[in-house]
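Worked example 3 (structure in, sequence out).
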C-alpha cells in the first residue's frame, strides 16, 4: 500500500501521485483518499508550514517531477526533486523522550555496532555510549538485543508533535533501549568526551576522557569493544576499560585519527597527541586560552582547535612534536588581521606556540564550542560559538570569512554540540532556550525549530548505519528515496532531563 502524503493522493491505475486540488481528469481516487479530501484542514496547515520553511510545496515537487523528471524548475531556479523532498521531510521530525535516563547523557555520547553474547549465542547489537556531567558512564543496547540481559528498560514517550497533529503512520515507536546490569560505571570526574576510534575501522573501541577535578587533572581511557561483550557480568564495562594517559590539566575535548592509533586532546593549556597503544604524549600546540573544541580533518594530518578566546587554529600534527614547549615556534596573531578588536585596548594580539598556520586562523566573536569537518568537502567545516553563531568555513578562503551562516541558534555560555547527518545535508543543534533546530547545510535555511525539552539539549549523535549511506543519484525514484532515508535517519540528543531520539518518517 503506497504511503499517504499530505496534499496529494496515489492513483493505482496511473501508478503515481496527484495533488488533491485539481486532479487530472479521468483519474480515480481510492476511498481513503476521498475521505482525506473531505478533511483538508490539517493537511493544508501542514502544507502551508512546509511552504514557509522550504519555499516549495510538496504538490509542486510532484507535479514538476512528473513533467520534467528529477530536475524541477521554479521561480527560484532549478532544483533537484530528491534534495527538495528531503528538506521537506527533515522539517517534520517526531521527537521521543526515554524514561529513566536523567543526567546520563548531558556531557557526551556516541554510537557503535558491537558483538555481544546472549543465551542464543553471539549477535550484533547497536550500542549507545553515554557520559554524564556527574561522571556516570553507561552503555545502552538499542533494539531487541537488550531483552536478553534483564537490564533496566527505558521506554520512549512521544513528545512532539501531539498525535492529533500528525498522521498515525509517522509516529512509529522507535522501541525501548536497555541498560544491562554490567553496563554502568562511575568515573573519577565529569565525562568530557566520548569518540569512536576509527569510525570505519574494523577495530572497535571508544576514546573516553574525563575533565579532571580540583585535586587532579583529566585522564584518557580506551573502552575496548573488539571482543564480544558479555553484559551478564556485573563488571563488564570495567573489564573493558583501560587508562591510557593522565594529564595534570583540564581535558575539555578530544578526537581520534582515522587509523585509530592516536588521539588529539584539548586542554586548558593547549593541544596534545596521545598514542593510544603506548600512552606516549607529545604537545602540538600551547596556548593560554583553553582548547574547548577540536576536529581532525579526514586525512588525520591537520587538527582544528577552537579556543575560548574565539580563535580557530589550524595545527599540523605531521611534524615532529616536542615534549618541551619552549622549543615551539611562537606566533603572535594580531586581532586586527582577523577583523576583530582585542578584548581591551592594550591587548591587540594573542600568542600561541606550535606548528600553526597563522594565515588560516579564524576568529569568532565568542568561545568556540563545537567544530565539525565535512567528509564530502575536506576543506570545509562547521563552527559554533557561545554567542549563538553557527558558520560554515572553507579553509581555502578564510580571509573572506564564512561561506554560509545559520540563523536562529541561541547560546550565551554553554558548550553545545553540532550534529551532522551522514549525507552531510543537515546540521542540528539544541539551544539554551531548550529548542531543537535543524538547518540545510547548503542553503543555510532553518527547516525546523521547536521547544521539545525543559532543559538544554547539549549533546548530539546522529544514528550511524552499519554501512555508509550513499548519496542518492537522479535515477532513484520517490519510493527508494523515502525508504532509504527512513532507515538511516535518526538522531540522539542528551540533556539533564534525559535522552531524546529524533526520527523521520
Amino acid at each position: 500500500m503506497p504511503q499517504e502524503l499530505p496534499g496529494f493522493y496515489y492513483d493505482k491505475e496511473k501508478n503515481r501521485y496527484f495533488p488533491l486540488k485539481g486532479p487530472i481528469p479521468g483519474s480515480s481516487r481510492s476511498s481513503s483518499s476521498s475521505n482525506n479530501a473531505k478533511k483538508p484542514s490539517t493537511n493544508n496547515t501542514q502544507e502551508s508550514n512546509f511552504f514557509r520553511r522550504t519555499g516549495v510545496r510538496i504538490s509542486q515537487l510532484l507535479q514538476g517531477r512528473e513533467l520534467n523528471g528529477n530536475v524541477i524548475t521554479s521561480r527560484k531556479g532549478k532544483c533537484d526533486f530528491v534534495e527538495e523532498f528531503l528538506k521537506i521531510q527533515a522539517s517534520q521530525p517526531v521527537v521521543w523522550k526515554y524514561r529513566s535516563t536523567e543526567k546520563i547523557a548531558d556531557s557526551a555520547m556516541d554510537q557503535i555496532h558491537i558483538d555481544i553474547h546472549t543465551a542464543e549465542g553471539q549477535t550484533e547489537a547497536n550500542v549507545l555510549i553515554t557520559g554524564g556531567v556527574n561522571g556516570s558512564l553507561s552503555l545502552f543496547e538499542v533494539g531487541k538485543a537488550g531483552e536478553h540481559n534483564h537490564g533496566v528498560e527505558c521506554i520512549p514517550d512521544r513528545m512532539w508533535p501531539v498525535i492529533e497533529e500528525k498522521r498515525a503512520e509517522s509516529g512509529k515507536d522507535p522501541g525501548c533501549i536497555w541498560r544491562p546490569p554490567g553496563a554502568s560505571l562511575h568515573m573519577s570526574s565529569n565525562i568530557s568526551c566520548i569518540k569512536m576510534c576509527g569510525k570505519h575501522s574494523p577495530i572497535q573501541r571508544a576514546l573516553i576522557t574525563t575533565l579532571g577535578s580540583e585535586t587532579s587533572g583529566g585522564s584518557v581511557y580506551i573502552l575496548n569493544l573488539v571482543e564480544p561483550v558479555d553484559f551478564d557480568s556485573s563488571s563488564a564495562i570495567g573489564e573493558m576499560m583501560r587508562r591510557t594517559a593522565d594529564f595534570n590539566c583540564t581535558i575539555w575535548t578530544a578526537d581520534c585519527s582515522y587509523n585509530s592509533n592516536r588521539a588529539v586532546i584539548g586542554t586548558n593549556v593547549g593541544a596534545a597527541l596521545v598514542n593510544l597503544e603506548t600512552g606516549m604524549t607529545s604537545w602540538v600546540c600551547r596556548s593560554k586560552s583553553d582548547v574547548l573544541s577540536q576536529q581532525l580533518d579526514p586525512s588525520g594530518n591537520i587538527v582544528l582547535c577552537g579556543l575560548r578566546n574565539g580563535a580557530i587554529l589550524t595545527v599540523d600534527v605531521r611534524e615532529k612534536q616536542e615534549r618541551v614547549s619552549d622549543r615551539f615556534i611562537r606566533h603572535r596573531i594580531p586581532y586586527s588581521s582577523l577583523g576583530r578588536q582585542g578584548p581591551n585596548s592594550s591587548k591587540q594580539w594573542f600568542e600561541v606556540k606550535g606548528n600553526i598556520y597563522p594565515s588560516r586562523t579564524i576568529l569568532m566573536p565568542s568561545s568556540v564550542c563545537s567544530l565539525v569537518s565535512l567528509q564530502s568537502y575536506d576543506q570545509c567545516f562547521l563552527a559554533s560559538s557561545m554567542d549563538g553563531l553557527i558558520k560554515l568555513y572553507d579553509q581555502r578562503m578564510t580571509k573572506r570569512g564564512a561561506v554560509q551562516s545559520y540563523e536562529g541558534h541561541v547560546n550565551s555560555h554553554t558548550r553545545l554540540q553540532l550534529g551532522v547527518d551522514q549525507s552531510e545535508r543537515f546540521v542540528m543543534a539544541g539551544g539554551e532556550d531548550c529548542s531543537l533546530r535543524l538547518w540545510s547545510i547548503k542553503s543555510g535555511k532553518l527547516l525546523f525549530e521547536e521547544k521539545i525539552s525543559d532543559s538544554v539539549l547539549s549533546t548530539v549523535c546522529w544514528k550511524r548505519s552499519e554501512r555508509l549511506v550513499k548519496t542518492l543519484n537522479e535515477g532513484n525514484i520517490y519510493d527508494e528515496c523515502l525508504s532509504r532515508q527512513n532507515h538511516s535517519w535518526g538522531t540522539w540528543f542528551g540533556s539533564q532531563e534525559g535522552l531524546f531520539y529524533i526520527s523521520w518518517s
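Notes: The helical segments are 31-37, 41-54, 58-68, 81-90, 236-240, 478-488. The mean pLDDT is 81.
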